[in-house]
Amino acid sequence: MRLSKYFLPTLRENPADAEVVSHKLMMRAGMIRKVAAGIYDYLPMGLIVIRKVENIIRKYMNEAGAIEVLMPAVVPAELWKESGRWNVYGKELLRFKDRHDRDFCMGPTHEEVVTDIVRNEVKSYKDLPINLYQIQTKFRDEVRPRFGLMRGREFIMKDAYSFDTTDEGAEKSYRDMRDAYCKIFKACGLKYKVVEADSGAIGGNFSHEFMVTAETGEDFVISCDSCDYAANIEKAPVIDVWQEEDEPLKSVERVETKNMKTVTDVANYLGVPEKKVVKTMILRAGNDDIIAVMIRGDHELNMAKIKNFLNVPYVEFATPEEILKSTNGPLGYSGPIGINVKIFADNALKGMKNYVVGGNEKDIHLLNVNHGRDFSIVAFSDFINAKPGNTCPKCGGKYVITKGIEVGHIFKLGTKYSKSMKAIYLDKDGKQQYIVMGCYGIGVGRTAAAAIEQNHDEKGIIWPIQMAPFEVAILPLNDDNEDVVNLAETLYIKLQKKGVEVILDDRKERAGVKFNDAELVGYPIRVNIGKKTLENGEVEIIIRKTGEKISCKKDDALSKILEIREKLYNED
Questions:
Q1: Largest CB tally within 10 Å, which of 15, 308, 436, 537?
Q2: Within a domain: residue 387?
């Protein structure tokens, strides 16, 4: 490819709305352009990267025995109503009507559609197991799309679905997909962790996320300092090791806390540790039931744990109107005494005594409150986010926390969808059985963006060679010099014949412009051909990943480039 004939609209400055590195660099490197919030054009360089990720995915999915299909992006509501997700998925599901007033949605995921395929075509145990996958555009109406391809509304996803006759078979399919994912992300040249995760809106009873480690990541990964345990912050358990406090119970006191907006404000004003200020969260759970959950002031609420504990389809914060109705007090001052809802509490409160709570009245808190005496708790459980220093459930070591970017998620679904949608097969005895399912997703654009978050510097992108739009860039630095131009052309043609993905920057531009663009786009190997070096019969080869500069004789340039290329593939 000749850059003079290519479409590469690079930018010198960061776009004003770009927050993370990958968003900034993909925009500046002419790979994507914003159409609307969370919706992007893929320009030529960006599309090449996307296609490379897709091809890596296809290779290892096919090797694992999965079979590619393509399902529609537009899905009739009837299928989602069968599974029970139409009314619980939330506003992320883009719903609309056709000209006949029939309900449809843009598929954010395709469990219903693929289950419909299998239930109509699979009749016998002899037809199973089977694993179907697609690479397709999805849409989720994110409330706050941001970070470019990291959290868009429209995105490209690989989603696969396994169908087995038994739990044991489903376990094998799950392991096969886990192994395939490890191969995929290794082949993409990425450093990653496999972590236990919550199943969220997909459902099922078990899942793992694949997290690319990056300091700029939006997710937190909890891992152990002594063993291989790892989980995302939604899933990581906080072991119940809390001790009972050794102090006599005191009488409740009512105190004015005017203009105290935060736990820190209240703690400082009252002269108590933040952990002694207990937050009472009013939530809507399941079928619009209003509940209260109490946690220590220095802890963070974990909604996924509450949802799983209550076994409800969703949990969300109550509205100010619902809080007022339930507590007779305003938002920000809720407490457990005198309210008419079920109260749940985190394990850390079990042994606490004489703590501070909201008074269900503006600018009022209550001191020396004690559960059992002053109010009743329905149940205790783990309702908080894990923190560094918490105890590992596997070996007793201590948690450490790192940042990461979720690029893949695999789920063991069981019979969640096959039961609701009546996907059955006849076993060896002619009896009807529910098919056991799993599902497996990879964010294609997120994988590309994560590679940039993990591989960049102040000059631009440093692509792993497996994902780079072009492996080699040739830069003739003096376009008015015949020897320079001829050598660049000759090397360009020879590399093409060797099957190398090469781009020739034959634009009538200054050397500095070519250098800047090459480093911004992130070609793994750059070949500088200039008048001065040619006087000595040499060219300069630069390895983007290390910055290493190699001078070699022009006659050896081809073999040296091929050698470096092979080394980069083997390293990553």
A1: 436
A2: no
